[in-house]
Amino acid sequence: MTTDTLLSVKNLAITFSTSKGPVHAVRGVSFDLGRERLGIVGESGSGKSQTGRAILGLTAANGKITADQMQFHDLDLRNLSKRDWRKVRGARISMIMQDPKYSLNPVMTIGDQIIEAYREHHKVNATEAKRRALDMLTAVKIRDPERVFNSYPHEVSGGMGQRVMIAMMLIPDPEILIADEPTSALDVTVQLQVMAILDDLVRERGMALVFISHDLHLVSSFCDRVLVMYQGHVVEEIRASELDQAKHPYTQGLLNCLPKMDGNHAELPVLTREASWAEA
Ligand SMILES: Nc1ncnc2c1ncn2[C@@H]1O[C@H](COP(=O)(O)OP(=O)(O)OP(=O)(O)O)[C@@H](O)[C@H]1O
């Protein structure tokens, strides 16, 4: 772990016990994270979300985590007490989920939710909290912050809801932001707008971003480095700018499956897989 490293994960494994036997969701994942944008990409079930959730201590009760190291600054995340997790989760390491509908309270206005979240972390009076809440909405490029402030979650679009979520996640000034498919419920144009906002904020504040997605194109546009996961393993770790030199056939397959914009409408190649890739 170098001085620039915020988080160091070594040999993380997560196994769920189920009635049909053990599910080895993550099998020996290692990575270091500095103040950078790290993408985790892979198909459904490859273990991306479980890797992200483990960093937040959010593994389901039937899951068993082992790791040689899960170090966040001087904290060993493998054996944090519930009390210590409360100081880390949502405060120093935050997560943006896929769908704001499930994260926002439907019976409270957006403004009241931001104020509540803000006052949990900062000692300010109601007037100042409102001013800061409006600033937060402006920071995520909401043009009419007063209107959104007074709206209920169902009254705003999905893209707007996700901007509100980003604003809320930023309130405690986390060092690491984990964004798990933050835009997959949105249509493509809105997806890019929301990603660009997230990207600006991450850069401005010098945060680390872990961006989890099945979309290699999106990940490579917004990340510095990419971990490619396949059946619980990291099969390749590569700089986004060097993806065209990817060595692993699975990464090459994912790249070849991206639709091309050159007017060539040949059939998309089928992603091939080999059992040996899932071996340690
Ligand atoms: N509580 C659980 N009990 C049993 N198996 C689980 C549990 N949670 C996750 N899994 C399994 O762990 C594996 C990895 O899941 P994970 O959610 O990390 O995949 P993913 O790569 O994020 O895929 P997706 O993009 O579909 O979310 C999957 O096979 C999933 O079914």
Structure description:
The chain is an alpha/beta fold. It has two domains: 7-92 and 175-278, P-loop containing nucleotide triphosphate hydrolases (Rossmann fold, 3-Layer(aba) Sandwich); 103-171. The chain is 33% helix and 24% strand. The chain has a six-stranded mixed β-sheet, with helices on both faces. A hairpin with a 2-residue loop joins strand 5 and strand 6 (75-76). Helix 3 (110-121) crosses helix 4 and helix 6 (158-170) packs parallel to helix 7. The longest helix is centred in the last third of the chain and has 18 residues, at 188-205. The two termini are 23 Å apart. 36% of the residues are buried. Bound molecules: adenosine-5'-triphosphate. Adenosine-5'-triphosphate (ATP) binds next to strand 1, strand 2 and helix 1.
Q: Do you know the CATH architecture of the largest domain?
A: 3-Layer(aba) Sandwich
Overall form = globular
Number of strands: 11
Biggest beta-sheet profile: 6 strands, mixed
What is the CATH topology assignment of the largest domain?
Rossmann fold
Number of helices: 9
**SSE order, one letter for each helix or strand:** EEEHEEEHEHHHHEHEHEEH
Topology (elements, then pairings):
Blueprint: E1 7-18, E2 21-33, E3 37-41, H1 48-55, E4 63-66, E5 69-72, E6 75-76, H2 82-88, E7 93-96, H3 110-121, H4 126-139, H5 145-149, H6 158-170, E8 176-180, H7 188-205, E9 208-213, H8 216-222, E10 225-230, E11 233-239, H9 249-256
Parallel strand pairs: 3-9, 3-10, 7-8, 8-9
Antiparallel strand pairs: 1-2, 1-4, 1-5, 5-6, 10-11
The chain binds adenosine-5'-triphosphate.
